[in-house]
Amino acid sequence: MIDAFLVPEKTVITVKGDSAALDVSSSANRTFLLTFSINGVVEQESIEVSIFTSADGTTWDAKPVVTLPQKFYVGDYPILVDLTATPDARFVRAHWEVNRWGRGPNNARFEVSMRLREIPPDLLHEARAEALSLR
User: Fold this and answer.
1) What confidence tens digit (pLDDT) does each residue in 5-26 have?
2) Can you tell me the distance from the alpha carbon of 126 to that of 111, in angstroms, rounded to the nearest whole number?
3) The domain containing residue 29 runs over which residues?
4) Tally of domains within the chain
5) What is the CATH number of the domain that holds 74?
6) What whole-number distance in Å separates Cα of residue 132 and Cα of residue 135?
7) 3-state secondary structure 31-84
8) Which of 1, 26, 32, 89 is most buried (most C-beta within 10 Å)?
């Protein structure tokens, strides 16, 4: 069961960048919960996070598998990362873009973390069954 940080807690981000690659090839399930946590911000700034996949950990796909909309505020932002359509994906990494405007320093400053947790197959099956019963 994969439960790891793509970006460790209390990481300060001031410019665009990428996380280290995380090997997800040992996962029993190809669906994950990414929790993007913003614990500190300054005013008038935004951050956008995308998740990319790779078969070898070196060459990354041109398009992300998922992108969170821009965030501006402190909070926890969960999103599903479903790799079932990308069977060759053995590695994932986060990429972020930051923007700052207005008065004060030009550099953005976010204190963040990104945790990736594998969703157990039985829990995912229950959620899908419940979603179908609501139709």
Assistant:
1) 999 999 999 999 999 999 999 9
2) 35
3) 3-133
4) 1
5) 2.60.120
6) 6
7) EEEEEEEEEECCCCEEEEEEEEEECCCCCECCCCCEECCCECCCEEEEEEEECC
8) 32
